[in-house]
Amino acid sequence: MSTLFTFSVLAGLAVASDPPIAIQETALLPAAQAILDSVQDGNGEAFRSVAKLDLPKLEADLKPLVATLPSGTDGLRLGPTAVCYVLHRLFMRTSAWLVKGLNPQGMSWNKTSPLKAVLFAKMPQGIRQLVEEKLAGPGLTLRETAIVAALFRHFVHQEASELLRKVYSLRGLPLGGGMGTNKTEVAVEMFTSSFIMGRRPAVMTRSAMMSDLQSMPETYPAWPFVRASLRKVMKEQFEETHAMSAAQKGPDFFAAARVAHEVTDRMGFWQQPACGGLKDTLVKMEDRDTGRVRLASFYGKSLHDGTWQFSESESYLRQLGALDESNPSNPRVIIPNYMYGASNCIPTTEHISVCCANECEAITQRLEAAVACSEAPPETIAAIVTSLPSSTVPENRTLSALMLYRLNSIAASHSGVVPLHGRLFAQWLHHAYPRECPYPHVAGTTHPQDTDDWLKNTGLDYTASAADMARRAGSDPQLWKRPSAASRPLESAPWSYDEELFVPGKGTGLPEGWMVLHGAVYAASAAIVAFGIMLLRTSKGARRSAAMALETQASKLYQV
Questions:
Q1: What would the pLDDT profile of 75-99 be if each residue is shown by its tens digit?
Q2: How far is CA 344 from CA 285, 492, 532, in A?
Q3: Would you tell me how many other CB atoms lie within 10 Å of the CB of residue 490?
Q4: Backbone dihedral region for residue 198 (phi beyond 0: left; psi -120 to 50: alpha; all else: beta)
Q5: For 34-63, what is the mean pLDDT?
Q6: DSSP reduced 3-state for 323
Q7: H helix or E strand, kind and range, residue 97
Q8: Residue 137: how many CB atoms within 10 A of its CB?
Q9: What number of CA atoms fall less than 13 Å from residue 548's CA on the CB side?
Q10: How far is Cα 20 from Cα 8, in angstroms, rounded to an integer?
């Protein structure tokens, strides 16, 4: 992990005796220029200095993903949309960070750019100009993209150091240590609770800091898990510091800062037991293996069972992309969309929110590593997915005829192969892993916002009133638990043929994030042709079995 000294060789950051923590543009710009210049050939003293820090790890994390992009082959560079896409996925995968401005917020990916990230806007002008020029020109290489990621992470760590320094100041603690390990541990716990509450150093008060720590067990359900992980890291870091400086009485500020950086990087995974508990509660209410919970059950759990998390209003859930209204008389909450939604993320700073770890990222990471290409034949993908388990889906399963039908329909629309980075394949993965992979809404139909932005932009509370919940769940505290499933028709998750290629390949003549809309009749015809091709590759007996299965599926209420 990075420490307070990340990029210190390049940026000339303050040492312990220097009170300012902000990065000076005059110190950082030449260093950033030197990095971006030296990485062209991998030589040069500047790059060798960075190589000792976290750049190799970031580059290794990015490489498998970039290799599966249409524009990610050797010798090609990544444009603004591609850079934004890989950075968004990198930070979600490695830290469960939702970096504000990197995700499209319901719009198409061609409207995104790392230059729009709030964190990027806070960087010195010289760095912004340098990256802008490279993105406007040939684009960024893998190594340059890793450098941008390192700079993003570095600035998040700088913010953490500022907050920790404020805690030290309010508690009157010396930066050089000497006050014992126990006081340092309390200071780091105060930093962590302030980080969770999204405190800003410039306006944080001692009373707020003390109140945050005391209220954690009540206000933050994941606190026991986070605190246990935090104490383990502190024990490791502070014992190492003590071994390095036996004469020093307790860890100094920089040892505490290393732990603060670990907090920012690993919070999403430390809170995963609580996220898993939330998911388990939703799965127990699931509407017949669809990855969805009837809104009546969702509100019933909150209204009658006291589960305060399930209280978002219908309008907020709709804009969040967590509400399936394909049947208006029976709206349902989409489990992964809700789990990874902004209302379950912690807006820890102005620039990032810490979310529940995205289980679908782990699935796609393994799938992309197996394919190692931007596209693959449907039978290759089917073989990989059948052997790829999740927390709720077993390995070595058999995909239904309908799932194979849809996978081949995607290939039929793309010259016989399935693009890995497109909306249709993301939709197919949602059907394959309905509790782990979010449903990808058509661009422009949702506008996810965190609760503070929702209130600011709409003037509406994001929570539903008791009366609104009762209109869906009813007033009987027991009736909502016993929905009459037998009297309701089987409803599958919706399927649409709207495609969006997140990062189209070179030579397509299409802008990044190009949207192509298929009519239902054309898409269904293409799927039938593709399914016929798939059947020809099997034995006659298998063809007959698959055809019979498809006929049976078609007789049900599936939206094909």
A1: 578 999 999 999 999 999 999 999 9
A2: 18, 25, 43
A3: 11
A4: left
A5: 61
A6: strand
A7: strand 97-99
A8: 10
A9: 6
A10: 14
